[in-house]
Predict the structure.
Amino acid sequence: MDIRPTGEALGARIFGVDLSKPVADGDFRTILRALGEHGVIVFPRQTIETEDLVRFGQMFGDLEINVANLFHEPDHPEVMILSNMKKDGKPIGLGDAGQGWHTDMSYSKDIALANVLYAMKVPIREGRPLGDTQFRNMHAAYENLPDDIKKRVEGRSATHDFIKFWDMMRAKPGSTRGPLTAEQRRQKPPVSQPIVQTHPITGRKILYCNPGYAMVIDGMDQAESDELLDYLFKHQEQPKFFYAHKWTEGDVLMWDNIGTVHNAIPDYGPDEPRYMRRIQVMATKNYAKLAA
Ligand code: OGA
Ligand code: MN
């Protein structure tokens, strides 16, 4: 296995692993460590089936079946389809890029370790790939906080709510999302998440607070909370934390969903097809032990 870091704020390309075959336990541990260290890891030029993606993801933890599971591969509710493509005039995938920055599953009591996307169709215009996925490094964001802010957020939690992001996306033109049902609300009530967390792979502190879902810092009045959340979100915007992945078909990209925030860029049109298979790995294992 050959791990080549991008040299940027996040990211490494991993060569010499064929994900159409089972990954040996030692290689799995190396990949897990690389995920913690680089935040975004890419396995280029893969040709894999849905079952291969599932088998790879399950090495890292249980796969999520989303509460609003709009589009998934046949017989695989855990494999979501992200796509702007249509069949018989109807959407075949969740097509809403242009999301704003967020962390998947921060709204959930049980959080996710990682996402894995397999790029089957990547829009290209004039030789350039479109639909970048962007990331920010929350290890570095925490380390770079001024000491007084570190003190203010230490031991604090924020309330995250699924509906914040859902309704923001739903309001976008052409959204296929309906209103959340009472049952979905019941399954995903607002939850509190510590703002400073110890990353389960690296053992280092991270800033776990994203503008997609975080509503309020618990125990603060709204004005004080808004001011501190604004500060934290602005802080995350610094270019030194930023990394953009430019997609190539066949990429299997895995991102650390605890130590990064991400955003999808909607710079492609309805006639420029994009198709990704996506799984979400829940943080259900003892990663410190596995990475040791
Ligand atoms: C996601 C997501 C980004 C993309 O799958 O959670 O934000 O580029 N996707 O499709
Ligand atoms: Mn996301």
